[in-house]
TrEMBL record:
Cellular component aspect of the GO annotation: membrane
UniProt entry tagged with the keyword Ubl conjugation: no
Signal peptide interval: 1-20
Pfam families: HATPase_c, HisKA_3
Protein source organism: Prosthecobacter fusiformis
CDD domains referenced in this protein's UniProt entry, alphabetically: HATPase_UhpB-NarQ-NarX-like (cd16917)
A single MF term (Gene Ontology): phosphorelay sensor kinase activity
PANTHER family xrefs: NITRATE/NITRITE SENSOR PROTEIN NARX-RELATED, SENSORY TRANSDUCTION HISTIDINE KINASE
SMART domains, A to Z: HATPase_c
The name this protein goes by in its record: Histidine kinase/DNA gyrase B/HSP90-like ATPase
Transmembrane spans: 454-474
Domain Histidine kinase/HSP90-like ATPase residue range list: 600-695
Keywords from the named record: Kinase, Membrane, Signal, Transferase, Transmembrane, Transmembrane helix, Two-component regulatory system
Length: 700
């Protein structure tokens, strides 16, 4: 024996009272073995009696002793065994689907005898698994017979208020009607459906043939049954206590018949007095025939208005009694009067009183929603009292009305849920089962202004408004841009006109006066003069010539359009050529590459260079000027260098009557540049203007 097997036996022994057993010898010990312990293969040596064999020659045998029942599986077919044989089974435990059994290594026939004595059982014994895989004896009322497969049949047996299946390994008996509504005593194996969690889903019974089913009390003939009004089903009646669970008979007019065997009738055997609600004092009692739901054992071709005589088993169907497993006693030849099958005009409030369950009613309500199901359409309705739903069978090529339609619906009223207040049960929700397309009538089409369309229109208006605001914004930007361009053009034209006016004034006044002064100096120099006076006249003559040159340059600059200056190197070369003379050498040194310059930036840099050159001519007494232009360390650098006498820093801060350096600073400020005046070695001055390249975009 392995250590694991010994441990399993110790665990079982502790569970059974602390006495460890090496070999299990009783059925109760085997069936009580936990699944995890049973997996270890605990040794079993069991003497028991065969109670049921899975099938003739099958491999699973159900046995029991005086302690209980279990099963064993043989490695070979058990053709030699039969019910009542006493066997000795040797093997090891297996968990089984629900309780532990034996994997037989061998079995020996010890003798034959009587089958195991069955244990009396009720539904609760079967549902709890108390006698599972054990022979039991039950007593109940036969409800109906069915054939699930060839050579097998099922008897549906009522045990009190519950119905269980008795599965018989044999075809249906010849006289099937004898078993229905008869009180039966059945000796069978207790079994059931098991899920993967080792839970008993539902119990059922197994018998080998119909010899194990005995009729204790025969069923009464259908024609002998008293016709009972539908309103009296499942009511308290001391005189009918012994008949509880048996079939009853009733008659009525067909209100609706559905393909699944569900039929609704309105009982006309007697009128049912339905007392009004005690809450509604002063109202009169309402008198209406009671309606009843039937579930036939097999569907019949029935039409509304047809009269029926049926028998079935009473059953509480949700809120009111119904008949199940019903059969037709007889079909009356004539049709009912038209008024007998007419729908009852009701409101939702009357439906919630509960007296109209299973009856044919007519109701007005508004359609809220609809969607297709497997059997047709489900309609969601709203009335003044509460919402409810209706089921409409599938329509060939049809469609449901649009949402918001006012409908008249005719159908079977069914209470879906209820609640208890004190001792009284009241409906909480109900539904309608429509019989067909003719039960749905459109009283009023919905307004074109549905919620969806209104939301869509609002969305469209919002989109149009958003588009209009966007268009207005873009238009304002365009107008502002055009206005700014127009303002700049007007300002530019005004500035150009003013510059040209100043240029004319300079030309007509200052330049003419200088020309006249130059002529007088030339005439004076033709006369005999002393040397000192002659040198003074020559110096004055040169000064006047230089002033004339500067005046002409100023007039030329004033007449030039600032917006026309786009090429700064070319402008610097032009400045150099204009300034070059016998006494002064001017050079331009440009180091490419150079960035593209905005027009106003190029203009300001050109004017800064010209002002610096003018200052050199006036004050530096230089012999050469170098104009430099290059890019260095992310900056555009403009330099004006001379070899003159230099200058003091204070002279660049502006003096009375001198505005050149001040104008240079102002121009640098406008384009975002920096300016420095530097003394160079051995002598001379350099004006250095630096402009960050990233600022060119901003100024552009």
């Amino acid at each position: 024996m392995t250590r694991l097997g010994i441990l399993a036996c110790l665990v079982l022994g502790l569970a059974l009272g602390g006495q460890a057993q090496e070999v299990l010898t009783r059925a109760a010990e085997v069936r009580g073995l936990p699944p995890d312990v049973a997996l270890t293969g605990v040794p079993v040596e069991l003497q028991a009696v065969v109670g049921f064999i899975e099938s003739p020659g099958g491999g699973t045998v159900f046995v029991q002793d005086e302690t209980g029942g279990t099963f064993f599986r043989a490695s070979r077919r058990v053709k030699s065994l039969k019910v009542g044989d006493r066997v000795l089974v040797k093997g090891r435990s297996v968990p089984g689907l629900y309780l532990t059994g034996v994997e037989a290594q061998s079995y020996d026939l010890l003798g034959s005898g009587e089958p195991p004595v069955p244990v009396p059982a009720g539904y609760e014994d079967l549902a709890t698994g108390r006698f599972h895989y054990q022979m039991v004896q039950v007593e109940g009322i036969g409800r109906r017979l069915s054939v699930p497969e060839e050579n097998r049949s099922v008897l549906h047996l009522a045990l009190g208020s519950r119905v269980v299946e008795v599965r018989v390994d044999a075809p249906l008996p010849e006289k099937q009607e004898e078993w229905v509504d008869a009180r039966l005593q059945i000796t069978a194996l207790a079994a059931g459906g098991i899920n993967d969690r080792r839970q008993l889903v539902f119990p059922y019974l197994r018998v080998s043939d119909w010899s194990d089913v005995k009729i204790v009390k025969a069923a009464p003939a259908l024609e002998a049954l008293e016709v009972l009004p539908a309103a009296r089903l499942l009511r308290f009646d001391p005189a009918r206590m012994e008949d509880f669970g048996h079939r009853v008979r009733t008659a009525g007019t067909v209100l609706a018949a559905f393909p699944d065997g569900q039929v609704f009738i309105r009982d006309l055997t007697a009128e049912a007095v339905v007392p009004s609600s005690p809450r509604l004092k002063g109202t009169e009692d309402k008198v209406r025939p009671a309606a009843l739901a039937l579930r036939l054992t097999r569907p019949l071709s029935l039409k509304p208005g047809q009269r029926l005589d049926v028998a079935g088993f009473p059953n509480m169907d949700g809120f009111s009694a119904s008949l199940v497993d019903a059969v037709l006693v007889k079909e009356e030849g004539g049709a009912a009067e038209e008024a007998e099958a007419e729908p009852v005009e009701v409101t939702v409030k009357e439906i919630l009183e509960g007296t109209l369950d299973a009856d044919l009613v007519s109701l007005e309500a508004e359609l809220v929603d609809a969607f297709r199901t497997g059997s047709g359409w489900e309609l969601r309705l709203v009335s003044t009292e509460m919402p409810m739903r209706a089921l409409l069978p599938t329509r060939e090529g049809g469609d449901v009305p649009r949402q918001g339609s006012l409908l008249r619906l005719t159908g079977i009223c069914r209470v879906e849920s209820s609640s208890d207040k004190g001792f009284r049960s009241r409906p909480e929700s109900a539904m309608l089962l429509l019989r067909g397309e003719e039960d749905l009538v459109i009283l009023r089409e919905p307004s074109w202004w549905t919620v969806q369309r209104l939301v869509g229109l609002i969305g469209l208006l919002l989109a149009v408004m958003a588009g209009g605001l966007l268009w207005i914004t873009l238009l304002r930007r365009q107008v502002a841009k055009q206005g700014e361009a127009l303002r700049r053009r007007i300002t530019h034209e005004a500035a150009l006109e003013e510059r040209q006016r100043i240029a004319r004034e300079f030309h007509d006044t200052l330049e003419q006066e200088l020309a006249g002064l130059s002529l007088r100096l030339d005439a004076a120099m033709t006369r005999p003069l002393e040397d000192k006076a002659k040198r003074l006249m020559e110096t004055s003559r040169h000064l006047v010539s230089r002033i004339q040159t500067e005046a002409r340059n100023l007039v030329a600059d004033l007449r030039a359009d600032p917006e026309s200056v786009t090429d700064l190197p070319a402008a610097l070369n032009e400045l150099a050529e204009r300034t070059l003379s016998d006494l002064l050498e001017v050079q331009v040194r440009v180091e490419p590459p150079l960035p593209a310059l905005p027009v106003h930036v190029a203009h300001h840099l050109r004017m800064i260079a010209q002002e610096a050159v003018t200052n050199v001519l006036k004050h530096a007494h230089a012999s050469s000027i170098v104009l430099g232009l290059k890019t260095q360390d992310g900056e555009l650098c403009l330099t004006i260098s001379d070899d003159g006498q230099g200058l003091e820093q204070t002279s660049t801060q502006g003096q009375a009557g001198h505005f050149g350096c001040m104008g240079i600073r102002e121009r640098c400020l406008r384009i975002g540049a920096q300016v420095e005046w530097l003394n160079v070695t051995p002598h001379g001055t350099q004006v250095r203007v630096t402009l960050p390249l990233f600022s060119l975009t901003d100024h552009g």
